[in-house]
Amino acid sequence: MGSQLLSTVERREFLPESYIRPESDRPRLAEVTTDSNVPLIDLASPDKQRVIAEIGLACRTYGFFQVINHGIEGKLLEKMMAVGLQFFRLPPEEKEKLYSDEPSKKIRLSTSFNVRKETVHNWRDYLRLHCHPLEEFLPECPSNPESFKEIVSEYCREVRQLGLRLLGTISLSLGLEEDYIEKALGEQEQHMAVNYYPQCPEPELTYGLPKHTDPNALTVLLQDPNVAGLQVLKDGGRWIAVDPQPNAFVINLGDQLQALSNGAYKSVWHRAVVNAAQERMSVASFLCPCNSAVISPAAGLVRDGDAPVYRSYTYEEYYSKFWSRNLDQEHCRELFRCAQQLQ
């Protein structure tokens, strides 16, 4: 099955038919624009109230933002990207040991998104790693390259602390107690997708990942510093490119924060595109509610007399629905709207 991996195949001259999107669902790269106002937030600013206000504005208007001076050393970011690339350049027989298309498997190497269900594939391979509690999953992590476990362990610990810190700031920006979101989500799981997007012979015809939102609470994304690929949907249906910034993370709000904020904050539609000139890497780290966490709008955010936008549900229920569908189907979040909101 590992032979399906794009990273084991020599560069192609033409895109295989199974990756070609219908004409109505192609990236139209020439129409993508840049936005000089993409929020870039300095977490080391001494003006904490300003940071809180900037994050709140970004969550309401963009659904994502970039952070700099976040406390994680640039050297570690470089090591994480380098060891990820080393992994995807391992011999096919080595990668074959980790290949699986079973979505529930905690540590696995796979391709596209959900190869069991989708009709058109995505131009991506990815290594999925569960990494909290780290000591539980570390023994199953790849031991080749030799430095992989050490680098990934340090990176996961640092990113988790950053993610929890950001959840506290987001809580404050909503007018809630700093620890409200963290408590509401329970003992959060954490997993990571190390994404590899090979050079693509016809990037206008396919995606690395099509339009989607993240089903979790918060995503901390490390972009390839040299190759752009992330694009975000702005109001009005305009796609904007999110160019990588040196030593920065992109922070995406997930579906659970949109529900918890009663729709005040946005879980943003985004996609990954590919290009013909260069391969691209990214490392997405996801903070997820514990399965038993009951997700519902914070009581302080539902106005007197107003109905909540979303009904209460467990994260396990939501995540099960998410993986039973394709990325390009009706949004999973719509299944959890209150009946009054559907009228």
Give an overview in words.
The protein has 343 residues and is of the alpha+beta class. It has one domain (17-336): B-lactam Antibiotic, Isopenicillin N Synthase, Chain (Jelly Rolls), CATH 2.60.120.330. 26% of the residues lie in helices and 21% in strands. The protein is built from nine helices and 15 strands. The chain has helices spanning 48-61, 74-88, 92-96, 134-137, 148-173, 180-185, 255-260, 315-323, 339-342, and strands at 33-34, 40-42, 64-68, 107-111, 125-132, 189-197, 209-212, 218-223, 230-234, 238-241, 249-253, 270-272, 280-288, 294-295, 313-314. The protein has an eight-stranded mixed sheet with strand order 2-3-11-8-13-6-5-4. Strand 2, helix 1 (48-61) and strand 3 form a beta-alpha-beta unit. Helix 1 (48-61) packs across helix 5 (148-173) and helix 2 packs across helix 5.
Within CATH, the superfamily carries the name B-lactam Antibiotic, Isopenicillin N Synthase, Chain
Radius of gyration: 19 Å
What is the CATH domain class? Answer: Mainly Beta
Helix/strand-derived class? alpha+beta
Q: What integer is the average pLDDT?
A: 91
CATH topology: Jelly Rolls
Low-confidence stretches: none
> What pattern of helices and strands is seen along the backbone?
EEHEHHEEHHHEEEEEEHEEEEHH
Q: Say what oligomer this is.
A: single chain
Number of strands: 15
Sum up the overall morphology in one term.
globular
Sketch the major β-sheet.
Answer: 8 strands, mixed
The assigned CATH architecture is Sandwich
Calculate the terminal CA-CA distance, rounded to whole Å.
46 Å
The portion of residues forming beta strands comes to: 15-25%
* Count of folded domains: 1
Please state how the strands of the largest beta sheet are arranged side by side.
2-3-11-8-13-6-5-4
Q: Share of helix among residues?
A: 25-40%
Q: DSSP helix count?
A: 9
Keywords: Dioxygenase, Iron, Metal-binding, Oxidoreductase
Organism: Panicum miliaceum (Proso millet)
Family: Belongs to the iron/ascorbate-dependent oxidoreductase family.
GO molecular function: dioxygenase activity; metal ion binding
